[in-house]
Amino acid sequence: MSKEYPGNPLNSKDFKKALKTKYVPTAEYAWSAGHAINRFLTGLKEGRILGIKCRSCERILVPPRAFCEECFISVDEWVELKDTGTVNTFAISYLDTMANRIKKPLLPAVIEIDGAGGNGFLHMLGEVDPKKIKIGMKVKAVWKPAKDRKGDITDIKYFKPARGGV
Amino acid sequence: MPRRVAMIGAGMTKFMRRANDTPKEMAFEASKMALDAAGLELKDIESVALGTAPDAFDGVHMKGEYLSDGAGSFLKPYTRSFVGGGTGVFTGAHGWWHIASGMFDTCLVVGEEKMSSAHPHPQGAFLTIFDNLIERNLGPNLVWIFALEMNRYMTKHNIKKEDIARVSVKNKGNALDHPCAQLGMKITVDDVLNSETLAWPVQRLDISPTSDGAAAFVLASEEVAKRVTDDPIWIEGVGWNVDTTIWTNRDLYYPKYVEYAARMPYKMAGIHNPPKDIDFAEPYDPFDYKELHHMEGLQLCRKGEAPILTREGVTARDGDLPTCPSGGALGVGNPIAATGVMKLCELYWQLRGEAGKRQIPKDLRTGVAQAWGDLMQVGTVVVMRR
Ligand SMILES: [Zn+2]
Predict the structure, then answer these.
(1) Phi then psi for B33, rounded to 5 degrees?
(2) Is a pLDDT exceeding 80 seen at residue A117?
(3) Which of B108, B199, B298, B314 has its CA 20 to 30 A from that of B141?
(4) What ipTM score was computed for the predicted complex, to two decimals?
(5) Is a pLDDT exceeding 70 seen at residue A1?
(6) B191 exposure class (CB count in 10 Å sphere: 0-12, 13-18, 19+)
(7) What angle do CA B140, B191, B374 make, to 5 degrees?
(8) Mean per-residue pLDDT, B236-247
């Protein structure tokens, strides 16, 4: 094993002075939602959470997909689920999406949707004291007003504790 | 029957917050050091296997091709593999089958990452990991997935944060003995618990840094290995596995895909009782709880038991089952694909007794390295033996 290791670290002062080239990409995308998520998002616009059932393994798939990845067959049996669920896990985030520090924390959580056998999706919690959030807590969707919904995951504003504030 | 595959030389650069060196220059330095250590020249290398993470980190399209000269692949059979954070250890499998298949007698394996080029932070590149249809509009941050997984793991097993913090204390401490380390330091459990909360339960000192660096090793067939060295280290087994990206439909408390990935090399290497048959481990530790999570996936202990072993000192460098004797991603640094290659290099140096101040003070025969990545879904595992 050699004694001298290569590599030339720069401290932040030297880094500022170092010769650099720069480039800012302009990359914009527009994704079609596909068969399953199209219907899921349409459901959200109507104030409904939709899942899809695999006739082979009988799992209720939320978020829905066009095929069951385990049984590897097409699935098409749509089921309407309640807009209530259970907190599977959560975080109290003092970082925004670009890792900037924020004072009022964001409260991301995985919500198991009632009736989906533990399956669910990523969303946010609201109307709750962060210190009082618990895994296993029952929650209910708070929807945007119908006129403001546009077929997006944010048509649900957040999930709040199911029985009033906690 | 696959042919036996030996590691015969290893090299790496320092791991750094910001390198002046370009990615290609770092790949060259690590590759050259590995060749020198093996006593070979580039003309002796028949094939090259490179691992590096997303092109978006560098803003260089076709990063594999860009790095090829630095990885010693000028006009040679060359491929790049990429399985997210699992890439570095996967290169052990990637290179292994070049030799095991009988196609080549030598293979240079290289891992490189330069994360400091993305400004102001590689966060912007990391974000595209989230589902483009139903997750990204929620404004997620990469740290969220770790916070969500860590919370689930802690809650399921009723684990205290101080027992997780001990991993960070241990690994950053171990890294003080690593000449390439970026973040070797002596800290206490309280330092971790009092560090800035980023996304609870994740705090500043629970996390590995973003890093620049490269690492490399040379693999050879048995015939070549026995000609060039008296002390080859054998790659005895390789494995990899991937779970679905629909991560909200899985219970994050346990990495099943790591278990499945580990069962492959254990079978190849005849390992029936991992805690007994394995002498030391380099599990992937981008966050402190991940080392614990991965020890459980690697079957080195029962589910929920890893924090207890850590508290009892079993995983310390002088314990019964040392983990991350190098200092790991938490201490040496975490230039993603290079980190996994560094872990394979560490197995090599430890098994040859060349780890210097980091040397584990007991007879070593078998070591395992593991990496993990993407949306909490990829496991890659390599078992090496003296
Ligand atoms: Zn099915």
Answers:
(1) -65, -40
(2) yes
(3) B298
(4) 0.94
(5) no
(6) middle
(7) 30
(8) 97
> From the CA of A91, how many Å to the nearest CA of chain B?
5
Q: Which residue of chain B has the CA closest to A125?
A: B138
Single-letter code of the amino acid located at A104: K
Q: Of B285-289, B318-322, B371-375, which range is least confident?
A: B371-375
Q: Is the peptide bond preceding residue B23 cis, with omega within 30 degrees of 0?
A: no
B285 residue type, one letter: D
Q: For chain A, which domains are there?
A: 27-161 (2.40.50.140)
> B302 has which bridge partners?
none
Are B151 and A135 an interchain contact pair (Cβ–Cβ within 8 Å)?
Answer: yes
Answer yes or no: do A1 and B138 touch at CB < 8 A.
Answer: no
All domains in chain B, ordered by first residue = 5-120+209-385 (3.40.47.10)
- d(Cα B315, Cα B296) in Å, to the nearest integer? 13
